[in-house]
Amino acid sequence: MFLTSREQKLIQTFLKRGKLTIAEMMEITDTSRRTLYRDLNNLQKSLPENLSLENTDEGYFLKGDINQLT
Q1: What does the alpha-carbon distance between residue 23 and residue 3 come to, in Å, rounded to a whole number?
Q2: How far apart are CA 48 and CA 50, in angstroms?
Q3: For residue 39, which of 2, 7, 5 has the smallest C-alpha distance?
Q4: Distance between CA 49 and CA 68 in Å, rounded?
Q5: What is the per-residue pLDDT across 2-55, written as a single tens digit (0 to 9) for each?
Q6: Mutual orientation of helices 33-46 and 22-29 as an angle, nearest 10°?
Q7: What burial letters (b/e) apply to 41-57, b meaning 16+ CB within 10 Å?
Q8: Is 14 exposed, middle or buried (0-12, 13-18, 19+ CB in 10 A)?
Q9: Alpha-carbon 21 to chain mean position
Q10: Residue 2 has what pLDDT?
Q11: What domains are defined for the chain?
Q12: Which residues are registered as beta bridge partners of 55?
């Protein structure tokens, strides 16, 4: 699984905080909304099979076996 530095930052923050909003992720990665959505799409494709990136009204979160990331 190859991740960019921005994707790695997002994963680390998801593991620490759980859910993140688009605004929070834009601040964390210092990117535009469009770039962030592109990164999220690439991140979803890079995640292991039993792990997914889910979106709710409250924000995005990792769903599945997060132990695969550690």
Answers
A1: 21
A2: 6
A3: 7
A4: 10
A5: 889 999 999 999 999 999 999 999 999 999 999 999 999 999 999 988 999 999
A6: 90
A7: eebeeebeeebebeeee
A8: buried
A9: 10
A10: 81
A11: 5-64 (1.10.10.10)
A12: 60
**Do 43 and 10 form a contact (C-beta atoms < 8 A)?**
yes
65 CB neighbour count, 10 Å cutoff: 11
Q: For the beta carbon of residue 32, count every other beta carbon within 10 angstroms.
A: 10
The amino acid sitting at 52 is S
Tell me the Cα Rg of the chain: 11
Other C-beta atoms closer than 10 Å to the C-beta of 21 total 11
Q: Give the integer Cα–Cα distance in Å for 24 and 6.
A: 13
